[in-house]
# Entry
Amino acid sequence: MPSLTVENYLKAALQLELKSGQSRVSPGALSARLKVSPGTVTSMLKTLSESGLANYVPYEGVELTSSGRKLAMRMLRRHRLIELFLHSTLNLTWDQVHEEAEELEHAVSEFLIDRIDDFLEHPETDPHGSPIPAADGQMRGDFSGTVPLDQCKVGSDVRFVRVVNQQPDFLRYLSESGFELGAVGRIVENSEDAGVVRSDIDGVQFTVGLNAAQTIRVEPVASSL
# Structure
């Protein structure tokens, strides 16, 4: 059975791969995501490579093997289903579920995860709008039509469908600003000079920096005018 550390590295590598669209992940990106030293990352990547879970090439990066990707997808499925279960059943807020899921994902059985999936009626997304893998490893839902908020033009109407930045403070700020996933809003300001994007949802406006706007995914909707 893989160790907790191995599972965390594989899941992190998969998430970085999905984010960038590139199969090879740099050690530096893993170091930043896992908040560990580059030397620690290099040592673990060698271990993963020796175990047949990844192909690591020094100075180039690491790529998950089919077995490594399967295990990583299983961990991602666990994490996101647990987040949704905690949110929808135990009423934890979306800024609370991540850390709890980080602990629980290593302790639950596949049987329990499948039962949670059945109980939730095979959901497509977690509380942050991130797609949930099915038991066969395929991502549910079609998110090909989404774009980052910072790419939207002033006056365009959009539906907010995903928040990639899951820092609790940021999620709480969005909630306190009237933001909700699934809500439709209008872009009222997108200024590179000011470094902000301002959106209006039912008369309530919220503002985020351009970097934060890159982590909010939206889909265009027909104008209500």
User: Anything to note?
Assistant: Helices lie at 4-20, 27-34, 38-50, 66-89, 97-104, 110-119, 168-176, 210-213.
